[in-house]
Amino acid sequence: MANGRDTHEIKRIRNETLVALKVVYPAALQADQILRSLLVIFPTLEFDSLKRDLHYLCDKRYIERVLLESEGDAALTPWRRRWFRLTTAGMELADHCIADPALDDA
Amino acid sequence: MSDEIATKQICENSVSSEDSANQCVHDLHERQACVSKILEKVFRPLEECDPKLWRRRAYLLLIAIVYERMAMDRSEISTKELTELAKVLTQNDGKGRKGRSPKANSKTRVPTAENGAALHEAVRELYGTNLK
Questions:
Q1: Which chain A residues have a beta carbon less than 8 Å from that of B21?
Q2: Do B11 and A26 touch (CB under 8 A)?
Q3: Containing structural domain, residue B104
Q4: Which residues, numbered 42 to 71 in chain B, qualify as contacts with chain A under a Cβ-Cβ cut-off of 8 Å?
Q5: B8-66 pLDDT tens trace
Q6: Residue A76, domain CATH
Protein backbone atom coordinates (compact mmCIF):
# COMPACT_ATOMS: atom_id res chain seq x y z
CA MET A 1 0.00 0.00 0.00
CA ALA A 2 1.29 3.46 -0.88
CA ASN A 3 -0.23 6.79 0.04
CA GLY A 4 -3.41 5.10 1.27
CA ARG A 5 -4.01 3.33 -2.05
CA ASP A 6 -4.20 -0.44 -2.28
CA THR A 7 -2.27 -2.48 -4.84
CA HIS A 8 -5.34 -3.05 -6.98
CA GLU A 9 -6.03 0.65 -7.26
CA ILE A 10 -2.40 1.51 -7.97
CA LYS A 11 -2.39 -0.94 -10.86
CA ARG A 12 -5.69 0.36 -12.18
CA ILE A 13 -4.48 3.97 -12.10
CA ARG A 14 -1.28 3.06 -13.94
CA ASN A 15 -3.22 1.06 -16.52
CA GLU A 16 -5.74 3.84 -17.07
CA THR A 17 -2.85 6.27 -17.56
CA LEU A 18 -1.55 4.06 -20.36
CA VAL A 19 -5.04 3.79 -21.86
CA ALA A 20 -5.46 7.58 -21.93
CA LEU A 21 -2.08 8.01 -23.62
CA LYS A 22 -2.90 5.25 -26.08
CA VAL A 23 -5.91 7.22 -27.32
CA VAL A 24 -3.70 10.06 -28.53
CA TYR A 25 -0.63 7.97 -29.52
CA PRO A 26 1.79 8.95 -31.03
CA ALA A 27 0.91 12.38 -29.70
CA ALA A 28 1.10 13.24 -25.99
CA LEU A 29 -0.90 14.55 -23.06
CA GLN A 30 0.05 16.96 -20.31
CA ALA A 31 0.19 15.60 -16.76
CA ASP A 32 -2.70 17.87 -15.83
CA GLN A 33 -4.83 16.48 -18.65
CA ILE A 34 -4.00 12.91 -17.64
CA LEU A 35 -5.10 13.75 -14.11
CA ARG A 36 -8.42 15.20 -15.26
CA SER A 37 -9.01 12.13 -17.41
CA LEU A 38 -8.34 9.84 -14.44
CA LEU A 39 -10.53 11.87 -12.10
CA VAL A 40 -13.54 10.66 -14.06
CA ILE A 41 -13.00 7.21 -12.55
CA PHE A 42 -10.78 8.01 -9.53
CA PRO A 43 -12.36 11.15 -8.08
CA THR A 44 -10.13 11.22 -5.01
CA LEU A 45 -6.86 10.93 -6.93
CA GLU A 46 -4.32 13.60 -5.97
CA PHE A 47 -1.79 15.09 -8.34
CA ASP A 48 1.19 14.13 -6.17
CA SER A 49 0.07 10.54 -6.33
CA LEU A 50 -0.19 10.62 -10.11
CA LYS A 51 3.23 12.27 -10.27
CA ARG A 52 4.72 9.22 -8.55
CA ASP A 53 3.00 6.94 -11.05
CA LEU A 54 4.27 8.98 -13.99
CA HIS A 55 7.78 8.76 -12.54
CA TYR A 56 7.34 5.01 -12.17
CA LEU A 57 6.05 4.54 -15.74
CA CYS A 58 8.94 6.66 -17.07
CA ASP A 59 11.45 4.58 -15.11
CA LYS A 60 9.93 1.43 -16.59
CA ARG A 61 10.22 3.02 -20.06
CA TYR A 62 6.51 2.66 -20.76
CA ILE A 63 6.06 6.38 -21.16
CA GLU A 64 8.48 9.18 -21.97
CA ARG A 65 8.51 12.88 -21.53
CA VAL A 66 8.19 14.99 -24.67
CA LEU A 67 10.42 18.02 -24.53
CA LEU A 68 9.29 20.97 -26.56
CA GLU A 69 11.60 23.36 -28.36
CA SER A 70 10.03 26.12 -26.28
CA GLU A 71 11.14 24.50 -23.01
CA GLY A 72 14.43 26.22 -22.29
CA ASP A 73 15.21 24.35 -19.10
CA ALA A 74 13.21 21.12 -18.91
CA ALA A 75 13.61 20.92 -15.13
CA LEU A 76 11.87 24.27 -14.69
CA THR A 77 8.67 23.26 -16.47
CA PRO A 78 5.97 22.73 -13.84
CA TRP A 79 4.94 19.10 -13.54
CA ARG A 80 1.36 19.73 -14.54
CA ARG A 81 2.56 21.29 -17.80
CA ARG A 82 4.90 18.46 -18.76
CA TRP A 83 4.00 16.34 -21.80
CA PHE A 84 4.11 12.55 -21.80
CA ARG A 85 3.61 10.00 -24.54
CA LEU A 86 3.62 6.22 -24.77
CA THR A 87 6.81 4.49 -25.82
CA THR A 88 6.66 1.46 -28.10
CA ALA A 89 6.89 -0.78 -25.00
CA GLY A 90 4.05 1.18 -23.40
CA MET A 91 1.95 0.75 -26.53
CA GLU A 92 2.60 -2.99 -26.53
CA LEU A 93 1.58 -3.18 -22.90
CA ALA A 94 -1.54 -1.10 -23.48
CA ASP A 95 -2.43 -3.39 -26.40
CA HIS A 96 -1.83 -6.47 -24.21
CA CYS A 97 0.87 -7.68 -26.62
CA ILE A 98 3.24 -7.98 -23.68
CA ALA A 99 2.53 -8.54 -19.99
CA ASP A 100 3.95 -6.98 -16.87
CA PRO A 101 2.94 -8.62 -13.56
CA ALA A 102 3.43 -5.27 -11.85
CA LEU A 103 0.66 -3.84 -13.97
CA ASP A 104 -1.55 -6.83 -14.64
CA ASP A 105 -4.91 -6.29 -13.09
CA ALA A 106 -6.22 -9.58 -11.80
CA MET B 1 -6.61 24.03 -10.85
CA SER B 2 -10.24 25.20 -10.87
CA ASP B 3 -10.91 22.75 -13.71
CA GLU B 4 -9.51 19.99 -11.52
CA ILE B 5 -11.73 20.93 -8.57
CA ALA B 6 -14.79 21.14 -10.81
CA THR B 7 -14.00 17.75 -12.36
CA LYS B 8 -13.52 16.24 -8.90
CA GLN B 9 -16.87 17.55 -7.70
CA ILE B 10 -18.72 16.24 -10.75
CA CYS B 11 -17.02 12.86 -10.50
CA GLU B 12 -17.49 12.48 -6.76
CA ASN B 13 -21.20 13.07 -7.28
CA SER B 14 -21.47 10.61 -10.14
CA VAL B 15 -19.30 7.86 -8.63
CA SER B 16 -21.46 7.44 -5.56
CA SER B 17 -21.98 3.67 -5.65
CA GLU B 18 -20.06 0.70 -7.00
CA ASP B 19 -22.57 0.23 -9.82
CA SER B 20 -22.32 3.81 -10.96
CA ALA B 21 -18.51 3.65 -10.61
CA ASN B 22 -18.44 0.63 -12.94
CA GLN B 23 -20.77 2.41 -15.33
CA CYS B 24 -18.46 5.43 -15.20
CA VAL B 25 -15.44 3.29 -16.16
CA HIS B 26 -17.39 1.58 -18.94
CA ASP B 27 -18.62 4.90 -20.29
CA LEU B 28 -15.13 6.44 -20.24
CA HIS B 29 -13.67 3.44 -22.05
CA GLU B 30 -16.39 3.59 -24.67
CA ARG B 31 -15.77 7.29 -25.21
CA GLN B 32 -12.00 6.78 -25.33
CA ALA B 33 -12.40 4.10 -27.98
CA CYS B 34 -14.52 6.44 -30.09
CA VAL B 35 -12.13 9.37 -29.61
CA SER B 36 -9.27 7.10 -30.62
CA LYS B 37 -11.06 6.22 -33.86
CA ILE B 38 -11.91 9.84 -34.58
CA LEU B 39 -8.34 11.02 -33.95
CA GLU B 40 -7.10 8.17 -36.11
CA LYS B 41 -9.33 9.13 -39.01
CA VAL B 42 -8.88 12.88 -38.78
CA PHE B 43 -5.26 13.30 -37.64
CA ARG B 44 -3.46 10.09 -38.53
CA PRO B 45 -2.08 11.25 -41.91
CA LEU B 46 -0.63 14.29 -40.18
CA GLU B 47 1.28 12.11 -37.71
CA GLU B 48 2.58 9.89 -40.48
CA CYS B 49 3.81 12.77 -42.57
CA ASP B 50 5.98 14.33 -39.89
CA PRO B 51 7.02 12.57 -36.66
CA LYS B 52 8.67 15.82 -35.60
CA LEU B 53 5.15 17.05 -34.93
CA TRP B 54 5.20 14.94 -31.75
CA ARG B 55 7.38 17.62 -30.25
CA ARG B 56 5.47 20.59 -31.59
CA ARG B 57 3.39 22.41 -29.04
CA ALA B 58 0.54 23.45 -31.34
CA TYR B 59 0.06 19.90 -32.62
CA LEU B 60 0.19 18.40 -29.14
CA LEU B 61 -2.23 21.00 -27.79
CA LEU B 62 -4.64 20.39 -30.63
CA ILE B 63 -4.74 16.64 -30.08
CA ALA B 64 -4.91 17.04 -26.29
CA ILE B 65 -7.74 19.55 -26.43
CA VAL B 66 -9.71 17.35 -28.84
CA TYR B 67 -9.13 14.36 -26.54
CA GLU B 68 -10.09 16.25 -23.41
CA ARG B 69 -13.27 17.70 -24.82
CA MET B 70 -14.44 14.53 -26.49
CA ALA B 71 -13.44 11.97 -23.88
CA MET B 72 -14.52 13.84 -20.79
CA ASP B 73 -17.16 16.42 -21.59
CA ARG B 74 -20.25 14.25 -21.40
CA SER B 75 -22.57 17.24 -21.16
CA GLU B 76 -21.32 18.68 -24.46
CA ILE B 77 -21.10 15.52 -26.57
CA SER B 78 -23.06 12.42 -25.61
CA THR B 79 -21.48 8.97 -25.87
CA LYS B 80 -24.09 8.07 -28.49
CA GLU B 81 -23.10 11.03 -30.66
CA LEU B 82 -19.43 10.15 -30.33
CA THR B 83 -20.09 6.54 -31.25
CA GLU B 84 -22.04 7.58 -34.33
CA LEU B 85 -19.36 10.03 -35.43
CA ALA B 86 -16.64 7.40 -35.07
CA LYS B 87 -18.77 4.91 -36.99
CA VAL B 88 -19.50 7.29 -39.85
CA LEU B 89 -15.84 8.34 -40.12
CA THR B 90 -14.79 4.70 -40.28
CA GLN B 91 -17.41 3.91 -42.94
CA ASN B 92 -16.45 6.96 -45.01
CA ASP B 93 -12.80 6.00 -44.86
CA GLY B 94 -13.67 2.56 -46.18
CA LYS B 95 -15.70 4.05 -49.04
CA GLY B 96 -12.90 6.47 -49.90
CA ARG B 97 -10.27 3.76 -50.03
CA LYS B 98 -12.23 1.69 -52.54
CA GLY B 99 -11.86 4.38 -55.17
CA ARG B 100 -8.24 5.28 -54.40
CA SER B 101 -5.05 3.92 -55.87
CA PRO B 102 -2.88 1.76 -53.55
CA LYS B 103 -0.38 4.63 -53.49
CA ALA B 104 -2.88 6.79 -51.63
CA ASN B 105 -2.62 4.54 -48.58
CA SER B 106 1.15 4.58 -48.40
CA LYS B 107 3.05 5.98 -45.40
CA THR B 108 4.16 8.99 -47.41
CA ARG B 109 0.61 10.17 -47.88
CA VAL B 110 0.40 13.93 -47.41
CA PRO B 111 -2.56 15.37 -45.51
CA THR B 112 -4.98 17.24 -47.71
CA ALA B 113 -8.35 18.87 -47.37
CA GLU B 114 -9.71 15.34 -47.87
CA ASN B 115 -9.62 14.65 -44.13
CA GLY B 116 -11.49 17.84 -43.38
CA ALA B 117 -13.95 16.92 -46.10
CA ALA B 118 -14.47 13.51 -44.48
CA LEU B 119 -15.34 15.17 -41.19
CA HIS B 120 -17.66 17.65 -42.92
CA GLU B 121 -19.33 14.76 -44.68
CA ALA B 122 -19.68 12.80 -41.43
CA VAL B 123 -21.21 15.77 -39.65
CA ARG B 124 -23.52 16.42 -42.58
CA GLU B 125 -24.70 12.81 -42.54
CA LEU B 126 -25.20 12.86 -38.77
CA TYR B 127 -26.87 16.20 -38.35
CA GLY B 128 -28.09 17.14 -41.81
CA THR B 129 -25.94 20.28 -41.84
CA ASN B 130 -22.27 21.11 -42.25
CA LEU B 131 -19.73 22.58 -39.81
CA LYS B 132 -20.03 26.14 -41.13
A1: 41
A2: no
A3: 32-127
A4: 43, 47, 51, 53-57, 59-60, 63-64, 67-68, 71
A5: 666 566 555 667 778 888 888 999 999 999 998 888 777 777 777 888 888 899 999 99
A6: 1.10.10.10
